[in-house]
Amino acid sequence: MSASRRSGATDELGPDDPDGPEESGGSDLLAALLDGMDAALCAFDADGVVTHWNREAERILGWTAAEAVGRHGFAGWAVRSADAEEVHARLMSAMHAPGRQVHEFALVTKDGGRVLVRTQSAAVRGPDGKPAGVYCAFSEVHAQIDLERSIALSEALFEDASWGVVLVDADLRPAVVNAHAARALGIGRTSALGRPLGELLAQGVEELEGALTHVLAEGAPPAPAEMWVAVRTPEGEKRRCWRSGFVRLASPLAEEPVPLGVGWLFLDVTEAKQGEQEGALLRFRTNQLHRAARAAAECEDPAEAATVHLDFALAGFADHALLDRVAGVPRAEGEEAAGPVRLVRLAATPAGAPGPSVPTGAAGLPLRYGEGHPALQCVERAGAVRADAPGSAERAREWALERQWPGDAVHALCAVLRSRGRTLGVVTFLRGAGRSRFERVDAVYAEDVAVRVAAALDLADAVRRGPAG
């Protein structure tokens, strides 16, 4: 039996006229609509008689429409006798009250159990505008609370969350962006909507779109992913590391799961990741210095020990290393130079395949470094000097060859060799285009290596001169 007066509809709430096909069709439509609702619904006429009872009400309480329609109120079947008068009064009071009224009370199921429901009641008006009855929509309180929690969670995520939340549609375009995500992207919340991710991020778009596509096809990954992206800012591009989690969004109304998009939640962990990377790099370089010292201690020739220090320092740090010695007698601090500084190549890593440093310059011929060469500046300043190639790859190759460096060098770092208050030479580290430029922390490491190389070269001079020297 449906929810009409065939299930009991009154003239005021839905006439059922078997003589009129239009009225019969309207009644069938009303019954179908009521039975298809997700909320339980019942209705009372002006005398408090149940006129409508849909399938969801039957599911919650167990009473069928045939058993419910026609009863006077809930007394004696859907509520306890002690509560019947109060419940009936509260429900029927909506007939003479403006708007909707919300109540909570316990109903009795057909099997004798009790269920706490939350009701929304409002008056039903007749053709003359006068109250003709009351309709009452109700649901189990825990289901209502779950819904309210879900709504509250959504609102909190998009307003007050301390991490970024972005809803991405099936076309991989932002549909909703919370305040935190908008600040992280450096754009307004509404400005980001509907735009391709490539317009919001300068780098890392391919990785992010790949993750979103995977989630749409396969579902959420088992663990968060850390992604490096570049965000456009007024000061230029800034690299950020976002720890990201993804969930696939599917429509709860479809018979089969239909992907609506992806929920992307992220937290900026750039400082923590940089700290981890710097700590790991410091541990590695400290270990390399330790290993180099132990290996150099086993070298009979101090000059060989100098190249050992150089080879150990090169690992993970640079692509090439050059060791140049000041020609003639090393100059002490404050001494006047007899002429322009000249440098002689002592050792260099192979320009082609990687390998250990090779001693060169046995003839002692000075290098043809031009004025303003970074190595010469390093000697004159007695401090580290950094240099980077300008422009295109072709221009960078010309820049490197002009300075008598391997053609693939793009970034250079020169560290002075100092021992016993004298400048002995320069060690130059070179990086190719595949590496980043040298930073201040790299210069500190290069200076540590230079101290050890200079000490080995100074010892080699002392050994060569002998006791008499």
Description:
This protein is α+β, with helices and mostly antiparallel strands. Helices cover about 35% and strands about 25% of the residues. It has helices at about 20-35, 55-60, 65-70, 80-90, 140-160, 180-185, 195-200, 205-220, 270-295, 300-315, 375-380, 395-400, 440-465, and strands spanning about 40-45, 50-55, 100-110, 115-125, 130-140, 165-170, 175, 200-205, 225-235, 235-250, 260-270, 320-325, 330, 345-350, 360, 385-390, 410-420, 420-430. Strands 12, 13, 14, 15, 16, 17 and 18 form a 7-stranded antiparallel β-sheet that branches. Strands 7-6-11-10-9-8 form a 6-stranded antiparallel β-sheet, sandwiched between helices. It has a 5-stranded antiparallel β-sheet with strand order 2-1-5-4-3. A hairpin with a 2-residue loop joins strand 17 and strand 18 (about 420-430). Helix 9 runs antiparallel to helix 10 (about 300-315) and helix 10 (about 300-315) runs antiparallel to helix 13 (about 440-465). The N and C termini lie far apart (about 120 Å). The model is unreliable at about 1-20 (pLDDT under 50).
Short description:
It contains 13 helices and 18 strands.
Q: What is the fold's blueprint, element by element?
A:
Blueprint: H1 21-35, E1 40-45, E2 50-53, H2 55-61, H3 65-68, H4 81-92, E3 101-108, E4 114-125, E5 131-140, H5 141-159, E6 164-169, E7 174-177, H6 179-185, H7 197-200, E8 201-203, H8 205-218, E9 225-233, E10 236-250, E11 259-268, H9 270-297, H10 302-314, E12 320-326, E13 331-332, E14 343-348, E15 358-359, H11 374-381, E16 385-388, H12 393-402, E17 411-419, E18 422-431, H13 440-465
Antiparallel strand pairs: 1-2, 1-5, 3-4, 4-5, 6-7, 6-11, 8-9, 9-10, 10-11, 12-14, 12-18, 13-18, 14-15, 16-17, 17-18
Helix pairs in contact: 9-10, 10-13
